[in-house]
Amino acid sequence: MKLVRRVSAFEFPRAKSGCKIRSTSSLVVLLALLFWYPIHLLAQTETATISGQVTDASQAPVPNAPVVIRNEQTAQEFSVKTGENGNYVSPPLRVSSKYSCGTLIELE
Q1: Closest C-alpha to 76, from 101, 53, 54
Q2: Measured between alpha carbons, how far is 65 from 85 in angstroms, rounded to an integer?
Q3: Which domain holds residue 89?
Q4: 97, 98, 105, 99: which is closest to 81 by C-alpha?
Q5: Nearest of 48, 41, 39 to residue 96 by alpha carbon
Q6: Helix (H) or strand (E) run with residue 100 in it
Q7: Spatial separation of the C-alpha atoms in residues 103 and 67, rounded to whole Å
Q8: What is the tally of structural domains in the chain?
Q9: 28 lies in a domain?
Q10: What is the pLDDT of residues 54-78, one digit of tens each?
């Protein structure tokens, strides 16, 4: 009488090299991570903007006012003008620096 081994529905016969399935799945995961990694790096940025509104003493917006944004570490200055509603937005600035901003308006 021959003994027959029963195989469950959840049990798979092993290949001769027992880790063939694992090495293939590890390779797929590794390739997926390497593919995803550069995309993740592109999502990060090293710049930011400063925005605000210039108003007078009565809280009315001041259009076309010159705004100077100064990098305190390098003394580099950027000039922008406010829009019709007194709002301004700086160009992209390095995040790792300290900035000050101000405006000089002559009152009539």
Answers
A1: 101
A2: 10
A3: 47-103
A4: 105
A5: 48
A6: strand 99-103
A7: 5
A8: 1
A9: no
A10: 998 899 999 999 999 999 999 999 9
